[in-house]
Amino acid sequence: MSTNLIIEPRFRRLGSYIQDLERGLLQIPPFQRDKVWDNRKRKDLFDSLKNGYPIGSLLLWKPEDSTTFEKSLNKIGPYSVNVEDSQRYFYILDGFQRLATIFGCLIDHKKTELTVDENEWKKEFNICYDLKKEEFFIPRTNNQEIYQVQVYKLIDTRAAFMLEREFFKQEYYEKVIDIYMDRYRTLGTTLIDYVLPSTEIKGGEVEDAVEIFSRINSKGSIISTDWMVSALSYNKDQQGFKLSNLLDDLIENVKIYNFDKLKREHFLQCIINSFGKVHFDQITKKDTSKIEKLIKRSDFVEISKKSVKSIEKAIRFLFEELLVIEGKLLPYNNQLVFITDFFNQIENPTETQLKKLKNWFWITTYSNYFTMYSLSKQREAYHQFQKFLKDENENPVYNDKPDLPFEVAEFPKKIFFGSVRAKALLLFMLNYFNNFKTVNPEKINGFKFNYLFSDIKDDKGNFYPENVVTILDGLQFSKSKDMSFMLEDSEDYTKYFLTKEMKDIFLKKEGNYKEEILKIRKGIVIDNENQFIEKLGLRLTTEIG
Q1: Which pLDDT score, from 0 to 100, does residue 32 have?
Q2: Neighbours of 157 (CB within 10 A)
Q3: What is the reported pLDDT for 3?
Q4: Looking at the structure, do residues 162 and 238 belong to the same domain, yes or no?
Q5: Are the beta carbons of 283 and 268 closer than 8 angstroms?
């Protein structure tokens, strides 16, 4: 780290930050992630400002070399700001989303000389305050009541005068006017005088700024690892390549597969592992030395872009071929790492390779493959998988005791997404229903699991696996959580593990008929799952209870 760094804490009013942003004295480094906040987060920020709650601090940086970046980003909220050719400005390293929200909402879009995207302002930054209910809201129409005012007017004294005059014009009671105007002026003063702390770094290079950012945030807000990579990898020769934007595009593209809620760090791990040295321990902001070595490679951008395409292929494969139709159904994040590598190295896989890859997925899911092995054994498993990628005759599955088949945990007692065994059962049930065929993501919105009897639960309110009915959302028929109606009609529901015997019991409704039906259904599910598990060459430890 540079020894010429000056690090100073400062406390300034919100109004001062707004003025500096408008004058171009606070700028956005080119590796900064684009705007990602939604309207709910913006409204929550103003609730915090109103109540005087802390909203964190800012991290500002003035590099030693003013030509560190070819250019800054000039978009803050809906406004395009001036980028001054000056030694006075600071870059916003942390706090961009907060400042963009504050700036975008509190600048009067009708009076500023800045260029404004009116459409964006109207949709995302037109936050209003209801003086009657004393709450912020996002208007859905242009027809607001007189006591519902846009927040930028709260810090405008002339707007206050005009509003008070309008209240009198519309013959509001003087006492009501006094209450509303007192709320108006109090909130305006609270906003403009809100004190926001910052840490200013003067000097150093990008690496220094990233290290300080990491240390400052180690016990505070979380620094995004891909932000760190974007900062360290920013290269003028790559036309401002930003890994964070690449990940933003990826997340948008995998929405159709319902994988957009997967943590960004998991996608980043797939990219980093594509460089040939596998890391199964989670990559964090502290691993700057590992990441910097990769970033310095001349092929970093090229491999990163290729890896993102492979991640999309891997997720599509998981969705279409294995019915992992939501990210939360993925048993292990490391499975995505392996499958990404498969598509990274094999552009046009054969039927044999795809079949073996599907078998590998099921075996690694049912056998607790990624939890029973130590990190060193997992790396051996990765190397075995690499052999398969080079020769389809190789077995992609690593077994350190080849004479002993993997064991499968017993039938789960409840369904929850923290259990790989429960996910395995859900995936089996979805695939069994669909005859283990592929699905079209354009026709499947996702999945849900309903229940044969919504009133049968354990003493903690959990549903038993034998009571679960898996539904492919988009192809199926019911919005009801209780699916017992299937036991009454004439449809053949064997793909849901329902039989004529169970229907007959249901129609008679004698004794504990629901428990009797579920016991039979449990046996059917276990029998069919066991047959599937045996075909995978795994050893069963399941007993029907």
Answers
A1: 67
A2: 9
A3: 57
A4: no
A5: yes
Q: Report helix, strand or coil for 73.
A: strand
Which residues of 292-430 form beta strands (DSSP E)?
A: 407-408
> How far apart are the C-alpha atoms of 43 and 37, rounded to whole Å?
10
Report residue 99 as tokens.
């400042």
Residues 249 and 363 in one domain: yes
Give the pLDDT of residue 6. Answer: 84
Q: By residue range, what is the domain housing residue 150?
A: 6-202
Q: What is the pLDDT of residue 234?
A: 58
What distances in angstroms separate CA 259 from CA 227, 318, 364, one per listed residue?
A: 20, 10, 20
Question: Are 23 and 83 spatial neighbours (Cβ–Cβ below 8 Å)?
Answer: no
268's tokens: 């980043």
Neighbouring CB atoms inside 10 A of 412's CB total 18
Are residues 178 and 88 located together in one domain of the fold?
Answer: yes
The pLDDT of residue 373 is: 78
What's the pLDDT score for residue 239? 53
For residue range 421-430, what is the model confidence (pLDDT) as tens digits? 999 999 999 9
Residues (pLDDT < 50) of the chain are 218-222, 236-237, 285, 475-477, 542-545
Provide the token pair at 377: 């054994």
**Cβ neighbours around 202 below 10 Å, total:** 15
CA distance 201 to 1: 13
Which value, to the nearest 10 degrees, does the dihedral of the CA atoms of residues 415, 419, 424, 430 take? 40
Give 7's contacts (C-beta < 8 A, 6+ positions apart).
199, 200, 201, 202, 212
Cα–Cα separations (whole angstroms), residue 14 to 44, 128, 189? 17, 18, 10
CB 412 within 8 A of CB 425: yes
pLDDT computed for residue 277 by the predictor: 66
- Single out the residue in 377, 404, 431 at which a domain terminates: 404
pLDDT at residue 66, rounded to an integer: 64
Total structural domains in the chain? Answer: 3
Contact predicate 226/249, CB 8 Å: no
Segments of 14-111 assigned E as strands: 26-27, 58-62, 75-76, 79-80, 90-94
Strand partners, 465: none
Rounded distance between C-alpha atoms, residue 32 and residue 245, angstroms: 9
Q: What's the pLDDT score for residue 454?
A: 85
The answer to whether 193 and 13 have CB atoms below 8 angstroms apart is: yes
